[in-house]
Design goal:
alpha+beta
Length: 118
């Protein structure tokens, strides 16, 4: 049950908390930020045409899904569409072209054809 009572001093509504200092990044966050900068400077900024392809070799502690996701995130932040292809313990990264685009999923126009039948 809620309890309600009168307050004698109306200045309690004037209280404003002090702004917090920005927190320092932890070691893992600093490492992640450094890796994203390295990917942006080392790969994404140098992808100027489809003939340039880079190899990203994974270390023993790197997870392929994490590195692939970071590559795609850094490229999206830079406004570049990339193709990432796994090959063993490494990735090949290049600019996205129509030939490199995935053909998985529905075929274009299949939705309209199904609607016309039904």
């Amino acid at each position: 049950m809620v309890r309600i009572r009168s307050v004698a001093d109306p200045s309690v509504l004037e209280y404003r908390p002090q702004p917090r200092k920005p927190r320092e990044l932890g070691p893992r966050a600093r490492e992640r930020l450094a890796q994203e900068r390295k990917l942006a400077r080392g790969i994404i900024s140098k992808l100027t045409d489809p003939s340039r392809v880079f190899e990203v070799k994974l270390g023993p502690d790197d997870k392929p899904a994490t590195i692939r996701r970071r590559l795609l995130k850094v490229a999206a932040d830079a406004g570049v569409e990339i193709a990432v292809r796994p090959f063993g313990d490494r990735f090949f990264v290049g600019l996205m072209t129509p030939e490199r685009r995935s053909r998985r999923g529905r075929k274009p126009g299949s939705r309209r054809a199904a609607a016309a039948k039904g």
